[in-house]
Write a structure and sequence with these properties.
heterodimer; A: mainly alpha; 79% helix; 0% strand; B: 255 residues; alpha/beta; 9-stranded mixed β-sheet; 9 helices
């Protein structure tokens, strides 16, 4: 009984802010606000960049997770801590770090700017980099955990039957970790979508180029509070729908699903 | 049948949580005449007000000034949302006007400032006039138009007939300063006092008076501090000889 009572209080703790938001949104002018140029820009930029960041996270993160799970090498725990660091780092600190590396006077950024004319801050590419930096650890964590817990039997069977390691990975391992892969990608995508501190510090804040939806909400709070409310609701609805769509069915491994 | 014993652990956890929350909750019925006040001030005032705080606390023993700096517009928003601020000093009159209903009386102009172009130390790109800012390869940054410096600089540029596309909109004027001193941006329009404050970390390019603006800085007491003698003393200090001397030292101009 006490558990149920506390759980109800906890649910209320989560539900009240969202209910409050829905209560304050000016529904009659909502559509007009969403179709304003800077709202559309902000949402389009957010979705494009977060999807790219999720894709980059998969491309870079899955091999990394595989190496961390399967290969024993000295300093592995240090490497793992390094790759997961941005999970616990305050985002604005991540932004400062990205600056120091990729900024115009940064460690890598200075040669990039001087030799190739490539400028990462204040660009949409900078937004994707900032988002990927904070989102990838989510994917790495989930995929590595799944790989570690995997029964190697089917993989070894595949190898003895003559499959190349790439074939075995593609047709045996990946389907087996599919729930973790999906969950990790969705988490990374959601984290990228909500990224604020690193983006505003490293990529800057310019409507149309780097002002993603969270940055637009921050700005709108001062000038156009209705826009802040409406954009917030849109972001919440998107995230909520994705989380609902991530139903149990997709989160249980294929072997355990009832046919 | 054995009577059920209440397990002690949940009771301990809940008591701890209640204690912590109780300590965090703001005290109800704040002392209207407290000697500790919070002064919200535009970030361009940071150097001058830090110096003023030191002198004020020395000459008014027992008082404690908490300074909160930020863009005038974000501070105004916090005031409107109920932040516990006793005195507000903003960088333009529009922002002070936006919190009019929270004031305990009228605001007064306590100092003024002019604008200046800030560039990298040594001015490597040879920027000399406002129209130089429109050069396409230049990374020019500013603040959003609701921030006073954003409004002032847009005003100056439009009157001079110069169109510049900024690379980023920083949250406040010190953000512009940081980006330029760290080499991430080439130029921005800031207050003359910011160029002074940056010292040898940046260089300034003067904007001639006929193209420049005089930024008026108003100060006012908030309604919640209407009986607070420390707040009144602070405003008198800033308006009086000692405060004005400090402001002049930092490059501000008497109203």
């Amino acid at each position: 009984m006490p558990a149920i009572a506390i759980a109800i209080a906890a649910i209320a703790f989560f539900a009240l802010p969202f209910l409050g938001l829905l209560w304050r949104v000016p529904w009659s002018s909502a559509w007009g606000i969403i179709t304003e140029a800077d709202s559309r820009d902000a949402l389009r930029l957010s979705i494009e960049c977060s999807l790219l960041a999720a894709l980059l996270s998969v491309i870079l993160g899955v091999p990394l997770a595989w190496v961390l799970a399967r290969i024993e090498f000295p300093g592995r725990s240090v490497v793992r801590a390094l790759c997961l660091l941005s999970l616990v780092l305050p985002p604005v600190v991540a932004g400062v770090a990205l600056f120091s590396a990729y900024g115009r006077r940064g460690m890598l950024g200075a040669p990039l700017a001087d030799w190739f004319g490539v400028r990462l801050p204040y660009s949409t590419a900078g937004v994707v980099i900032a988002q990927t930096f904070v989102a990838m650890p989510f994917l790495i964590l989930t995929v590595e955990a799944a790989l570690r817990g995997l029964d190697r039997g089917p993989e070894e069977a595949a190898r003895t039957l003559g499959a190349t390691s790439w074939y075995s990975f593609r047709r045996v391992t990946v389907p087996a970790i599919r729930p973790a892969l999906i969950a990790g990608t969705v988490l990374a995508w959601a984290r990228a979508l909500g990224e604020f501190g690193a983006t505003i510090t490293f990529a800057g804040n310019l409507p149309g180029t780097t002002q993603t939806a969270p940055l637009a909400v921050y700005r709108a709070l001062e000038v156009h509070p209705d826009q802040a409310l409406v954009l917030s609701v849109v972001l919440i609805v998107i995230s909520f729908l994705v989380l609902i769509a991530l139903r149990d069915r997709w989160l249980t491994p294929p072997s355990e699903q009832s046919r | 049948m054995q009577p059920r014993r209440i397990s002690r652990l949940p009771v301990i956890i809940i008591s701890l949580a209640a204690l912590l929350l109780g300590g965090l909750l703001p005290g109800c019925g704040s002392d209207g005449n407290s000697k500790s006040i919070t002064v919200a001030a535009a970030s361009s005032l940071s150097g001058a007000f830090e110096a003023a705080k030191a002198e004020f606390e020395a000459s008014h023993p027992g008082t404690s000034i908490t300074l909160a700096f930020g863009s005038s517009s974000s501070l105004a928003q916090q005031i409107l949302d109920g932040a516990r601020i006793d005195v507000f000093a903003s960088a333009d009159n529009d922002t002070m006007q936006s919190v009019n209903r929270e004031l305990a009386g009228r605001s007064s102009t306590f100092t003024t400032n002019t604008l200046e172009i800030m560039v990298e130390k040594g001015n490597p790109l040879g920027i000399a006039t406002l129209s130089d800012l429109a050069r396409p390869e230049l990374v020019y940054i500013t603040c959003a138009p609701e921030v006073p410096i954003g409004k002032y600089s847009a005003d100056v540029l439009s009157r001079a007939g110069v169109t510049v596309a900024p690379s980023s909109l920083e949250p406040d004027v010190k953000g512009i300063v940081t980006k330029i001193t760290s080499g991430e941006a080439d130029a921005g329009i800031v207050y003359s006092t910011d160029v002074v404050a940056a010292g040898d970390r940046a260089s300034g390019v003067v904007i001639p008076m006929r193209q420049n603006v005089m930024a008026s800085y108003p100060i006012a007491r908030l309604y919640r501090a209407r009986h607070n003698t420390t707040a009144a003393a602070w405003i008198d200090f800033i308006n009086g000889a000692e405060g004005q001397t400090i402001l002049t030292r930092f490059g501000f101009i008497a109203p």
